[in-house]
């Protein structure tokens, strides 16, 4: 159980709205910009788009970004331990799920070292998140390689919307203690700023045997944002963060040599900082531009591998309106990455220090075929990278809106995932396989070996979607998709030399197909009561492969959730969430299906002050969601996610 308390204060711009403030029509008209890099409404977006609002995050009681992502249909969010998640869209899940691109205010947090996202490093003040845009399906034209199965863009509030002071604090049995403070003010006539700081400590999980694990999580983070105008036609944003994380980790056997031939506990440490600047405005001809650059540094030390990485990214886009029927956008970007690793007997990079780059150009035209009714979008991106060579990633989207309450869209896309540096340059110990012979011949060491000639993975995706507002109080959004993958990076067996067996990363010769359907719905029963639900079905047609037996079983076939929100008298708010996740049935992921129930009770005795108590996993006192399959020597059972109860106090003043 965990206890969480949230303190909200005075009448400032980010006061929480009530359910009655969000009509079905307003929800369908919520802004989304990640699908096409321009502001559109959800109902006008030719993609499987979903927006998690600040109100959704607050009323869910989520204290981390992965927990908030559970609200979106089509996303697979599975907690591995107290600080580690597996997050993906439309299959191929895992701790280092590599087919989902994640951004924070347009800054990529997808790591090129092993691909995927280190979710334990991604954080901000949850109250500062304006919305999380989730685009399921390829987004390569706008965002480039690695936006294969989807794009998540975590968008924070403008500084003008966070004026005044905010203090949050709380704690419970899992959320041992947390606190955050934010201050916002004005700069001149048009500018605004904010600064924030936050800290938390999360307790360890307990396994099925009742043993306390070494997976606690501690963090200190701060940051700022400035928004101001340069002129009437242009404005700028500067923002940044700095953080320090300490993450408990249990290293399972990875080699036959000490210290990695046995299980031991170790505290991983990570220090990072980022700085982003964005300039946007209008040219004299009425066209719009955006120039963005950021620097991101992260240095982490772990038992098996330590790495320091510096990334510099520059991105430019230009939006033109050559005539009334064309909305043309083009852009270019360049990214340089320098990574230096400290090798061990468990993981060794060759070379251990490398600087590399990638660059891209894109163009997309939004063509009106019939005014306010039929629109065609054509675009492509040309991208060159150090790993995976040059990729061409086109798409075509068609949007039909016969009236204001119905919309039908379809798309075909091609996207790529470039190989990770780890796949192309690292030798990784995977553990030992018993031989049945006496020592020293009792184990065969299994090593993953790199292939510097790996080709990029490719996907051809076809999607169709239908959105409708049946009544003023009820709406649905349905998407069906079929994804065809080629050149997936998988293991092939190498030579057995003595007591060492190599598994070599290589491009698969066979193709893979996944199909699915995703449904989301909203029903405002009364002005003070709202239901929302979603369901996702996934079918993976994966050829059998004894070296890669787990692919189809890494993701559940069925997932669904139902939320019930009520605004009661005396400023009391009550929220219930029921989630069901189907079983994982691969060799390493023999995790049964589970159902969880969360509840949140909030009371606002004064304007801007809110007390909340949140209880999670009430139906299931403990249940496994995912196993950590980072080595062959897996624990005998999955870590069980415990019941959590916490209290939160928020105060805006």
From TrEMBL:
Coiled-coil stretches: none
Membrane topology: Multi-pass membrane protein
A Pfam family annotated for this UniProt entry: TonB_dep_Rec_b-barrel
Main location group: membrane
Domain TonB-dependent receptor-like beta-barrel: 212-618
Keywords, comma-separated and alphabetical: Cell outer membrane, Membrane, Receptor, Signal, TonB box, Transmembrane, Transmembrane beta strand, Transport
Location(s), subcellular: Cell outer membrane
Domain of life: Bacteria
Entry protein name: TonB-dependent receptor
Species of the source: Methylomonas fluvii
